[in-house]
């Protein structure tokens, strides 16, 4: 695995980043929809902490970042520069 400077010009790098961000968004979505079973103590969160309340904006941010990375992959795959 190379550095960001070495990889940023490869479409597959951005595609893989998009997939990673999509996976993170899915994990946040799962945690929000299974809020009652979320192990708050394991992460040092108070008993009143709610994933469903705290994370919708984070979920959307991760999806936005995933789309941005996917757009970069498409742009590079078409031979254009970012």
Give an overview in words.
The protein is mainly alpha-helical and 82 residues long. Helices cover 65% and strands 0% of the residues. The chain has helices at 4-7, 11-33, 51-54, 56-77. α2 (11-33) packs antiparallel against α4 (56-77). The protein starts with a helix and ends in a 5-residue tail after the last helix. 11% of the residues are buried.
Q: Number of DSSP strands?
A: 0
Tell me about the biggest sheet?
none
Q: Taking Cα atoms only, what radius of gyration do you get, to the nearest Å?
A: 16 Å
- Our measurement of the CA-to-CA distance between the termini, rounded to an integer number of angstroms, reads 21 Å
Give the percentage of residues in beta strands.
under 5%
Shape: elongated
Note the quaternary state here. Answer: single chain
What is the mean pLDDT? 95
How much helical structure, as a percent, in the residues? 55-70%
**Secondary-structure class:** mainly alpha
The helix count comes to 4
Please provide the ordered H/E string of secondary-structure elements: HHHH
- Spans with pLDDT under 50 lasting ≥5 residues? none
SSE layout:
Elements: H1 4-7, H2 11-33, H3 51-54, H4 56-77
Helix pairs in contact: 2-4
Brief write-up:
The protein contains 4 helices and no strands. By secondary structure, the chain is mainly α.
């Amino acid at each position: 695995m190379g550095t960001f400077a070495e990889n940023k010009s490869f479409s597959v790098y951005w595609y893989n980043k998009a997939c990673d961000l999509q996976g993170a968004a899915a994990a946040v979505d799962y945690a929000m929809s299974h809020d009652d079973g979320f192990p708050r103590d394991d992460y040092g969160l108070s008993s009143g902490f709610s994933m469903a309340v705290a994370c919708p904006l984070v979920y959307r941010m991760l999806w936005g970042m995933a789309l941005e990375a996917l757009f970069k992959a498409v742009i590079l795959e078409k031979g254009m520069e970012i």
